[in-house]
């Protein structure tokens, strides 16, 4: 049972903490006017990000959404390069040309995302098609929100993946809202995972705030897909504790609802579990938190100190029209 394995739990905790501290630092930098544009924070959704990525092999690919920071960290990207991307510097994952929503990283097998909701799902399906044609035993993961499930691209991809038995995991992070629209108002069924049956694939709903539950479900799905049995659908129920983007004042939800979900904080609950089970002491938890916070701070400071290292217009244009070897 891996949940009793201390090294695994330490990895899981570190990933979630790095992800949370990255978002907190990003918010601080935006508020200080040091980053421009917009951003979509995923505070509260860390168990989804870490649980999924821990179940993948390095060579499995992910295609995240506009709310991509946590998945990008958990798949192995360097937070320095991520902060640099938001500062627009040439040290960024997209050399500063993309910003918060565009953080592709070939080395980490992360295709990156786009602002177009649901657009990553056909891309992930395409990667799976490539794996199948080449006989490569890796999978791709299409990550998307509850809102995206109302888009045709998601249904078309699920249908094709099923017809062609492609090695793709459809991972739906149901954080209960698409911008200000509650998923219960926009989706005609209670469990989005029930949609999987229409495309002849297994579909499960898990507690997306419980890292161990997300990990176990993803591991099972990954094993199933790698056994050549075709696609799989996971719906992870979670909650974004911040607004949709930085200008959102969250007027569409109640203080009671937010308080209910604050109690279900994935990091605090995992930490309590680790102490209760005797896997970690309180001191070890504090130490881990401190190390992670300092690591993220150092990456942000380093990126800020190099923020003016920008591409020239000519370099940027050459990259825009470069071949795929860049
Ligand atoms: C095709 C398209 N339609 C609408 C939008 C505007 N938009 C941006 S994010 C968003 C909500 C997406 O909700 P969900 O898929 O649940 O992801 P979440 O933001 O909750 O992570 C919408 C409607 C868009 N970017 N692209």
What do these coordinates show?
The chain is of the alpha/beta class. It has a single domain, classed as Rossmann fold (3-Layer(aba) Sandwich). 47% of the residues lie in helices and 10% in strands. The strands form 2 sheets. A 5-stranded parallel β-sheet has the order 1-2-3-7-6. β4 (177-178) and β5 (181-182) form a beta hairpin. α1 (6-31) packs across α2 (46-54) and α1 runs antiparallel to α10 (266-276). The protein is globular and about 50 Å long. It starts with 5 loop residues before the first helix and ends in a 6-residue tail after the last helix. The mean pLDDT is 96. Bound molecules: thiamine diphosphate. Thiamine diphosphate (TPP) binds at residues 65-67, 115-117, 144-148, 175, 177-179, 244.
